[in-house]
Amino acid sequence: MSAHAESEHFAGSNKLFISIWVWLLLLTGFEVFLGYIHLPVVYMLVILMGASIIKAALIVAYFMHLRFERLNLVLTIVPAVVICICLLLVFFPDSFRARHLRYQGPASETQR
Amino acid sequence: MATEAEAIANDWGGGVHPYRVGHRKLGMWLFIMSDSLTFSALLMGYAYLRASNAWPTPFKFYPSIVFSSVMTLVLLSSSLTMVMAVSASAKRQRSAARKWIIATALLGATFIVLHMIEWRHLIHEGLTPFALPSEWAEKWPGASPLFGATFFGITGMHMFHVFTGCLYLFIVAGRIKKLKHEDVEISGLYWHFVDLVWMFVFPMIYLLSVDASK
């Protein structure tokens, strides 16, 4: 973007944004495709979350413009959120424990 | 234009403008931080229930997956039109910015309509927040009846955000002559955040519950 005296500070060209949009669509297409090949649910979860985190990073960096903001702002916002979200994982051992406490039925019909 | 080295040096400059953004934009970022924790907590609660229970995987290719994929396309496209709006606003092309913002809000409204149709399909099948349709209960014995609670809770919360975003964008479009560029950018931040949340809701709720049988 040319640094016009008239225009506001705004980095990134329309071409860049369209290419980000295309990448987001491709990743979404890949995710939907993944839903229809039979993978174990753990692999599915890991690959889907990986793709979603990449998509989220693209949106935050380019669409939400964070890549072009001052590093101070990025360091204030991103690590705090990431750490808080990771802290929520503390509940999962209890979730796995609760699963084994359930009545599993006469046959081994446990599903994911 | 500052060089890369200068830009990095300035990043640590701080002083009276530590973030080089207006207070409103900083406020929106703080709101987005707290809202992302709200959605994380909802999605983690869903994952907790799902990992500790038998869980139905009921979404058929049509209507659920087709609808949700098209909704994803609509929402991603609305993010692109919002970027175009902010870009036009940065160049002081206010009427172009207004048209892009209205396009964004209309795409958001399309998302809501599609989602309502998708909800209606499931409600007609007999899904409620605390009970599964009887066919599902037979097909997935012992499955948790809380499927509906997580589904309607999370997608409903997201839809509420889209709805609020549409209102917000219509107001911004209407008042664009009086607003500063940064205000348009802030409305864009909110809208992209709503899009970002869907990038997690769509795979976790829909794609991990695809009914691949048949």
How would you characterize the overall build of this protein?
The complex is a heterodimer of chains A (112) and B (214). Chain A is flat. Chain A starts with 13 loop residues before the first helix and ends in an 11-residue tail after the last helix. Chain A has one domain (14-101). Chain A has helices at residues 14-34, 41-63, 71-87, 92-101. Chain A is 63% helix and 0% strand. By secondary structure, chain A is an all-alpha fold. With 214 residues, chain B is mainly alpha-helical. Chain B has one domain: Four Helix Bundle (Hemerythrin (Met), subunit A). In chain B, 75% of the residues lie in helices and 0% in strands. Chain B has helices at 4-11, 23-52, 61-90, 94-125, 134-139, 147-174, 181-206. In chain B, helix 2 (23-52) packs parallel to helix 7 (181-206), helix 3 packs antiparallel against helix 7 and helix 6 (147-174) runs antiparallel to helix 7 (181-206). The longest helix of chain B is centred in the middle third of the chain and has 32 residues, at 94-125. Chain B is elongated and about 60 Å long. Chains A and B meet through helix 1, helix 2, helix 3 and helix 4 of A and helix 1, helix 2, helix 3 and helix 7 of B.
